[in-house]
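Narrative progress, year one. The postdoctoral researcher (J.K.) led the effort to move from monomer predictions toward full complexes, under supervision of the PI. The following entry was the first complex the group processed end to end, covering 536 residues in total.
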Amino acid sequence: MNTKILKGLVLVCGIAGLSSCGGNTTSEVVNSMATKTNGILKVGMELAYPPFETKDDNGDPTGVSPDLAQAFADEYDAELEIENIAWDGLIPSLQTNKVDVIISSMSINEDRAKVVNFSDSYAHSTLSLFVRTDGKIKTEADLDQAGLVGAVRLGNIGYYYMDENYTNITLTKLDNVASCVTEVMQGKADFFIYDPLTCFDNQELNEGSSVISLTKYDPQPWAAAFNQSNTELLAQFNTFLAQFIADDGFTAITDKYLSEEKAEFEAAGIEWFFDEAE
Amino acid sequence: MIKIKNKKTRNILLSILNAALVAIVVIGFIWVSLLLSNTELNFTYLSTARYRNNLWGGFLMTLEISLASLALSLIIGIISALFKISKVKFLRYFSTVYVEFIRGTPLIMQIFLFYYIIGTAWGIDQKFVAGVLILSIFEGAYIAEILRGSILSLDSTQIEAAKAVGLTKSQTLKYVTLPQLTARTLPSLTGQFSSIVKDSSLLSLIALTELTQVTREISANTFLLFENYLLLGVLYLLLTLPISLLSKYFEKRYSYAN
């Protein structure tokens, strides 16, 4: 009995020793990643924006951002941990080092740039209006009329754009996309401003709705966001990203997740997310 | 060491000392937590007039919603409690279904259901009105249960005794029933008002610009989550602490009833 336990212990110690030994060699060979926990890359994203960040049937993260994060982690031989965090909590999580980086289709904007460091951009997104076909808004110019109510998602780039540029519009600031769409379809709001992809998806789901793309809005670049104290990881990401773009990484991702959407965007004459990066 | 002979002064001093100790422990704990988590607080956003005005507006809105809901939920609660002890079966069942449904489902679900389906169907589009209605219907169920509980706890022999000494029905109500009901319900009712204030925060889900919604908006602009929510906590305490004290006072004032 005793010898059995002893043998077991020796075996366990041996394996532990071997594996720790193995860990050491790899980290010496590969240039290790400047993450908070050695060998682990923690990426924050909100898994609520298919097909960019979403969950598969098993509840595991899938989409453009998880793939991009995986490629980044692989490049430095780090283990990827994706943290699903509500949009409001993303930047605070980064600031308190709960995650090393945010890769969550986040647009660069002035307010955010004050509190995080953005990487080089890898995509960009325009904005669209989701409206009722029989509503007050038929074209972008109709936004200038008085007495409009617009539904926005708090913290979304469409919210900042409306807040800064259309003081004539009363904004209903909501927590989620479904509420915004409901406000429009029930006539409580005249439009919902969001990215074209989500607008098109909801147009398909709701009879009597249409999508208007905004030409006055400059497409905002998307980037990964880093804690301001970690410039090393930011540099590592930029190096990785340049190579990833050169290797047509985003073309592969588009083919995998977004082929239908790309055709839809082309038909509507809207710039594609990765037009510059592809 | 100064010897304090007067027992009363010593008691007061001891109370102050203990209160100060508790304050030091609590503030110290929060402070150490902030230090350990490397959180630096930055309240400079409060120098922006727009944010200050919005916060004040939100504070007033929360106060208005709470007061309006207090009145309306009391009415709903009293009616529902009367239904529940009524001899008419329909009313009793109706009240039971209402109370069980409201107390058995989360407020967030009731807000969406009421605002987007019932509110839209019946033309209640004004957010303030919808918000007060939802909150009152929600709190009314809890108030109904508080009232029912205290009505049932009244000893029926008292009514017989009142009859025996020759009191009329209205006299019985005035001198026997109501004083006891007040004593038994007032402390818990005041406590429930505290809940109304806190529960009103969920109305931010339909973008009613009350305190929580304003805080969420400011934190979306400033990304100062902790500062904004710490302040939110303090502002809610400003509303709920006085209520809590009032509840304690009522408890003491009416303690003879038990």
